[in-house]
Amino acid sequence: MLNLHFNPFPELRTRRLLLRQVLPTDVEAVMKIRGNEEAMRYIPRPRAKTTEDALAVVKMLTDGIKEGKSINWAVSNIHNPSEIYGIMGYVNFYPELNKAEIGYMLHPDYWGKAYVPEAIVEVEKFGFEQINLQSIEAKIDPRNGNSRKILLRNNYQFNKLVEKEMTFQDEELDSEYYIKHKSLGI
Ligand SMILES: CC(C)(COP(=O)(O)OP(=O)(O)OC[C@H]1O[C@@H](n2cnc3c(N)ncnc32)[C@H](O)[C@@H]1OP(=O)(O)O)[C@@H](O)C(=O)NCCC(=O)NCCS
C-alpha cells in the first residue's frame, strides 16, 4: 500500500540542492518557471501569465500534497533556498498499481547543469523507500530529447508510444511512456 501522508513535508537534500515545499512566498519564482515559453514547450498545461496564475499553481501543488494526490518539490539552491531552479515530483499516483508518474522542469537559466539528474536520485529513493512505489512512470513528448536523455541515463525503459493521445491548444500530441521498476534497483 502506498504511503501518501506528507506531513511534515519531507525535505530532501543532495550535494547542491535542497528539495523543499513550494510556498506562496515563492510565487515570483513559480511565475518565472511556469511562465517561461521554452520551459513549457513540451508541457501541455497553460502557461502562467499573471501572479494569480502562479498562485493557482502553488495552490494546486499544496492541495495535491494535502490530499495525497501528488507531491512536488521546489528544486532550490542548498546555500540559498529562496533561489528556485525548478519544480519536480510525483504528479500522479496510481495506488492500485503502486505506481506514480514523475515530472520535472527547470527554468532554462539552470539547464545543462545536471540538477535534475542529481535530484531524481533522491526523489526516486523517496518514492521507492518511503512512498512504497513499485514503479515510476514518465511520459514525454517525443520531441523532448533533453527529457528522454534524463530518463535513459537513469535506467528508465521505453514502454510504449501513444499517438495522438491528447489535444492541447489545437495540437494533437503523441506521448512516449518510460518505466522504472523498484526491482531493477535505484
Ligand atoms: C529536461 C530538463 C529537466 C533537463 O534537466 P537538466 O538538469 O538540464 O539536465 P542535464 O543537465 O542532464 O541536461 C540534459 C540535456 O539538456 C541539454 N541542454 C543543456 N543545456 C541546454 C540549453 N541551455 N539549451 C538546450 N538544451 C540544453 C543537453 O543536451 C543535455 O544533454 P547532454 O548532457 O548530453 O549535454 C530541462 O531541460 C527542462 O526543465 N526542460 C523543460 C521542462 C520539460 O520539458 N520537462 C520534462 C517534461 S516530461
UniProtKB/TrEMBL annotation:
One of its GO terms (molecular function) is acyltransferase activity. The keyword Disulfide bond does not apply. The lineage of its organism: Bacteria, Pseudomonadati, Bacteroidota, Sphingobacteriia, Sphingobacteriales. Keywords: Acyltransferase, Transferase. Its EC number is 2.3.-.-. This is GNAT family N-acetyltransferase. The keyword Transferase applies. Residues 16-154 form the N-acetyltransferase domain. Gene3D superfamilies: 3.40.630.30. It comes from the Bacteria.
